[in-house]
Fold this protein.
Amino acid sequence: MRVLVVGGAGYIGSHMVKMLLGAGHAVITLDNLSSGHRDAVLGGSFVEGDLADPECLNRVFEQHKPEAVMHFASYIQVGESVRKPDIYYRNNVTNTLNLLDAMLKFDVKKFIFSSTAAVFGEPDYVPIDEAHPNRPLNPYGRSKWMIEQVLADYDKAFDLRSVCLRYFNAAGADPEGQLGERHDPETHLIPLILQAASGRRENIQVFGRDYDTPDGTCIRDYIHIVDLCSAHLAALEYLNHGGVSDRFNLGNGSGFSVQEVIDAVQNVSGKQVTVLNGPRREGDPARLVADAKRARGILAWQPTYTALDTIVSHAWQWELKQLS
Ligand code: UDP
């Protein structure tokens, strides 16, 4: 298939491009390189362009004739979204509408959307299944939830079929060492601890040790980037075989605390990390763990790299490469 990967130069998108190419698909990456890296796109066609530019979208659809679209391009920082909701809604909502306009114009009816656990807000229960109420707590989560609702309406009105994948905590790196996480600034827990272990950073701060969890630190569901991408591949197959529009939660199904992640990094790297104890970060629920049974059942998705040590060791291999 010809698959357009929007945001294919970013962390998740670049791993997706690699996997699609490996599965024999023709890939077109569209990325404005605002946070992505051109050298992370390992093959296929590359177009530098922006979703805010409908002319650019027309050219991409005309020239490359994609049959399906995966959309990874969005702003992802919760705190920033609270301070700058205008740019979050413009990029994550308005620009996505532009992309959907182009799809409708060129009669492309298969869409895989990067959504987030943030569409749920403070959980009533964990693990969180798809029946859990949606009460996003910040503009980032709301922007994703808005598009999920837009997609339900577009399905009814335009027969545009979509799969929304709610990521919990994407983590790890390409097991072959070609790709990994390169955010600037880095805000995610695992790369921050790895940087503290490798010496690129002096320390790591734990945001709160007074949560109602066994060791007092927050519990999250870290899902290996390759497993996340294989769920997209499964979603593509699903849509190709006539699957109806749906939403799936994607996680490992097991939670790990911030302290457990620090321990895993020290164990894998053999380095001691300087750990500072900081205050809670606003809006952080104590536990976020996915119930991914529906994805396993309906998409026939099977995660491979579920052990925390494996996730951390692939990310550590990538971190070491950044030093050389
Ligand atoms: N966290 C932390 N120190 C940091 C960054 C994150 O203690 O420097 C905690 C954060 O409070 C959360 C977990 O690590 O409980 C994962 O945070 P991250 O920002 O990686 O992902 P999020 O859960 O916000 O999507």
